[in-house]
Amino acid sequence: MDSLAILNALKKNFALEPQSAKVVVVGLGDTGISVAHYLQKLGFNFAITDSRAKPPLIDAFFEVMPDTPVFTGGFDEAAFKVATHLVVSPGVALTEKSIVKAVANGTKIISDIDLFACSVNVPIIAITGSNGKSTVTTMVGEMAKCAGKKVGVGGNLGTPALELLEQEADLFVLELSSFQLERTTALNAVAATVLNVSADHLDRHNDIADYAHEKQGIFKGDGIMVINVDDPVVDAMREAGRRLFTFSIKKEADFYIAGQNNVEYLMHNKQCLMPLAQLPLEGRHNAANALAALALGGSVGLDEQVMCNALKTFKGLEHRMQRVAEIRGVTWVNDSKATNIGACVAALEGYERKVILIAGGDAKGADMNELTPAIKEKAKCVVLMGKDADLIKQALNDCVPVYMAENMAEAVKISASLATAGDSVLLSPACASLDQYKNYKDRGDQFSKAVLGLLA
Length: 456
Hints:
This protein is of the alpha/beta class. It contains 17 helices and 20 strands.
């Protein structure tokens, strides 16, 4: 879209005009910087505020935008008072006192996804869920590339949505978090899915019902709904009169798994698409991810054989059920991206044999008792570490042997002493990483480093 069409869309949807708007961008991270570049290109006056005294990206930002007003070390009341619009980054809670006060005084809140939605005239596929959204987003992107499409992939994953506008695309595939969706109103994806809902981010959402409600916002508009019928919370999100595709790994649906001649297949209606064994990813939950990707790709007309070829060569994501090594018959798997209970449960349920589980970190207010049934069924023993290790140990109530570790190196060492040939050691923390690490990637890297150290 050209600048005039974008400005008309912003005016129509948000009364946002360069001549009159006073925009404050809240948060100077990757999203905030992408918003700043976007607003500058369209000729808007704006300022940026951040609660941190020195945001990590501020020096690099000033090199390219030295004249931008930036307020750090707390949210500046004067900036909020004059703002007509706030673009609030996902990392900032809408319950911040300054934001609540500004909204009460008539200031409009918009998101980077709103700005993005007003700036494209090609299809958008939108993906959210407690678990699997990065995998499915990447799968759909790979399918589109294999089909010869120019595709932009990002959002909550990798490239901020507004940076995707810098490339020519036939299709955009966006991963969206609950924090992005709770402040987004203009999105109308051609196809969208909530993959699943389990307890997560309850330190920011009131309860799981509130969290699910924010996830459901991805279905605003009139696009195709892709529904996981195995998840009752998601299945209840169906809307009358909307076109939908269903998927399931437990029963027949539009996309499902069925056995024929002792071979399990990914199916579309009654048609065999590909043998499940040809999906090169660990865990049955990845079969659900593949079915969701097939449904989403199918909704924009991607050829099914092309999509299956993309799945057969899909390498998976780093830190998501990633096989690190097999050492003396023991398989070591890095699932550091499992930052909530649902992700850990899904990983465990993908195994036929019991595993040695490494877990722990910051539970983010989640009820760790919900982890107990899956651990009791699928774990040989558990090695715990991090801020809420004692909380998890208490929830497990001796249902399996528990060992405590101070850090990742010790957790790997303990696991190696417990494992025998044929075992799998799974790092699937069920918790956030920031109590001990920069992020889940750093945590996964430390795990891989410690595992590879066993070879020495």
